[in-house]
């Protein structure tokens, strides 16, 4: 039998949840082993998620900005694409960032183990090393941070023309046409990249709206833009069948009225959700419980049914976002280090990095309604923002939801340029228990898009300077 090593804390999975947990635990004085199959920490987010997708969206933005510059009297010749260079640059960003995380691990004296981990029982891990050997590790505490992977899709065929988000990020050629199955944020972001690069993109969504969970008025400006940039946006439409032909994939659709149609696409991107990486860990030989979808069940300290085992990030469920995983990781690490901590955020912001961007945090109109909350909603259209006009971004909107009685800020939603950067003011306001007056009376610099946050708060009282909407008596 191989050596049995001991450690105070083993973290399985080095994505934004796992590495944040490991770093925080080491900062708090624990002796930590961080285990992942990859060369360096980074996880889905850095290797095949947030970072590569945002690098490609940056390229898409350069292309779109150059085209739109014509309105301002600047005409560029159409761009020439060098896909190898684009891929190399993206990979360089990934290497630099993951390499940097590796250095931070060493600086904190964390033992980074390149292996696949599985439970022998609730007290012992087996580590399957790259060279085929295995080791055993007996940790005092364990954090499971194994993340998630793309969900497979019902009418699936085996074909080189089918992509999931992981291989869609490695662009080897630009498909003449692309069908994106799923109108969630990953599908819309990647669809936007391919459309900017020259593919004819169609998105198909089974429900009657894109980005379910986001208030409709925030989705409208994006949907209008996508309807211009994409060949089609098919809502209330299901993919029934796919068949590979010599020149593409024939896809059969059925719409809400039961009408059938079909079309052929060069490539098909399946982005219908993600599922937890909880299988393969042999959780059955531990007391760790999962729900019907395989997500690990945890309490507010991120503790599983086994008191010394914690779980964080995508493997514990929605929202599957990097910053939520990191925040949970820090809580779990603090609890293990003996601190009083719980994961009880009042707002977890979420950003869709399309053009325009959409960002939300806290309650939406839909969620407030579902919870029976009595709220006042104010909207500040960006047609009234000087900065938005100078950025050709007048189709944006900032909205705020406040408690009807106390005017405490409960939610914020923004669609428009840099919405992802602006939303943090809303998240801070919600976490601080700020009221609309706080945002209204905070002097914001002019001319900036952040003024739309201040003006939306003023609009609660019918006192926004740049729109005239008197308060209801
Ligand atoms: P992961 O990042 O998935 O990391 C899990 C790690 O565990 C992996 O490195 C894996 O190799 C390792 N692992 C799994 N099983 C084992 C095992 N048995 N032994 C050892 N190691 C194991 N989120 C955002 O917040 N913003 C975005 O803009 C964004 N964009 C995205 C774009 C795309 C295309 C995708 C796919 C995702 C995006 N996400 C985004 C989601 C984000 O990537 C995840 O929410 C985040 O990575 C979850 O972090 P995690 O630590 O829970 O797991």
Which features does this protein show?
alpha/beta, FAD/NAD(P)-binding domain, five-stranded mixed beta barrel, single chain, five-stranded parallel sheet, 26% strand, globular
According to CATH, what is the class of the largest domain?
Alpha Beta
The CATH homologous superfamily of the largest domain is called: FAD/NAD(P)-binding domain
Mean pLDDT: 96
Bound molecules: flavin-adenine dinucleotide
Strand residue percentage: 25-35%
**What is the CATH architecture term of the largest domain?**
3-Layer(bba) Sandwich
Globular, elongated, flat, extended or rod-shaped: what is the shape? globular
Give the total of beta strands: 21
Q: Radius of gyration from the CA trace?
A: 24 Å
CATH overall fold name of the largest domain: FAD/NAD(P)-binding domain
* Uncertain residue segments: none
The span between the termini is 79 Å
Number of helices: 13
Strand order of the largest sheet: 1-2-3-4-5
């Amino acid at each position: 039998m191989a050596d049995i090593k001991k450690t105070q804390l083993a973290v399985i999975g080095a994505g934004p949840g796992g590495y944040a947990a490991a770093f925080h635990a080491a900062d708090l004085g624990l002796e930590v082993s961080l285990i992942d199959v990859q060369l360096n920490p980074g996880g889905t987010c850095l290797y095949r998620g947030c970072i590569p997708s945002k690098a490609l969206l940056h390229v898409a933005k350069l292309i779109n900005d150059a085209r739109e510059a014509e309105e301002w009297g600047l005409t560029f010749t159409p761009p020439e694409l060098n896909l190898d260079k684009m891929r190399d640059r993206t990979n360089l960003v990934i290497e630099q960032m993951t390499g940097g995380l590796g250095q931070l691990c060493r600086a904190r004296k964390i033992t980074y183990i390149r292996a696949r981990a599985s439970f022998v029982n609730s007290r012992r891990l087996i580590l399957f090393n790259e060279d085929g050997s295995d080791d055993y590790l007996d940790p005092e505490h364990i954090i499971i941070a194994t993340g998630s992977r793309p969900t497979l899709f019902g009418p699936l065929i085996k074909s080189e023309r089918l992509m999931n988000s992981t291989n869609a990020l490695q662009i080897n050629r630009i498909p003449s046409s692309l069908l994106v199955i799923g109108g969630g944020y990953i599908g819309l972001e990647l669809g936007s990249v391919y459309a900017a690069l020259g593919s004819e993109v169609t998105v198909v969504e089974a429900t009657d709206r894109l980005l379910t969970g986001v208030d409709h008025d925030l989705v409208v400006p994006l949907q209008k833009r996508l309807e211009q940039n994409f060949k089609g946006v098919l809502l209330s439409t299901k993919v029934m069948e796919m068949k590979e032909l010599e020149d593409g994939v024939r896809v059969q659709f059925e719409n809400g009225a039961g009408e059938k149609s079909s079309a052929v696409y060069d490539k098909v991107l399946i982005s219908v959700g993600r599922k937890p990486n909880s299988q393969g860990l042999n959780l059955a030989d531990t007391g760790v419980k999962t729900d019907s979808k395989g997500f690990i069940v945890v309490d507010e300290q991120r503790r599983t049914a086994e008191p010394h085992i914690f779980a964080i990030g995508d493997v514990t469920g929605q929202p599957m976002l990097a910053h939520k995983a990191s925040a949970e990781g820090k809580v779990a690490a603090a609890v293990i280090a003996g601190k009083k901590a719980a994961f009880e955020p009042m707002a977890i912001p979420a950003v869709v990095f399309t053009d325009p961007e959409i960002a939300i945090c806290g309650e939406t109109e839909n969620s407030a309604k579902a919870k029976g909350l009595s709220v006042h909603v104010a909207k500040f259209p960006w047609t009234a923002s000087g900065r938005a006009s100078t950025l050709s971004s007048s189709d944006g909107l900032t909205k705020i939801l406040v408690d009807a009685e106390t005017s405490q800020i409960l939610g914020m939603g923004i669609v428009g340029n840099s919405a992802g950067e602006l939303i943090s003011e809303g998240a801070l306001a919600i976490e601080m228990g700020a009221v609309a007056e706080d945002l209204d009376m905070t002097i914001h610099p002019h001319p900036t898009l952040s003024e739309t946050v201040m003006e939306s708060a003023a609009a609660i009282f019918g006192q926004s300077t740049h729109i005239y909407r008197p308060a209801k008596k």
